[in-house]
UniProtKB/TrEMBL annotation:
It comes from the Bacteria. This is Uncharacterized protein.
Amino acid sequence: MNENAGAMPTPAHEELVRRYIESLSSDDIEAIMKQAELRVQHMAHGLFLAGKPLNHDAESSLVAKAIVRELNRRAG
């Protein structure tokens, strides 16, 4: 596990992620986005069933964070 998990990314890590993103095909990028959206939709559905629906802004924010988290995970 990364010792710096949750810490601000270093310039070296940002460069690693940038290079990783540049190496992805548009299909790979679309798959990452769809996966993040699906995860958030499942979570939002569970919250809705529990009587605590997410508003659109919160859902959009969670999708963006899920995409960044997945890119960071894949890039190393």
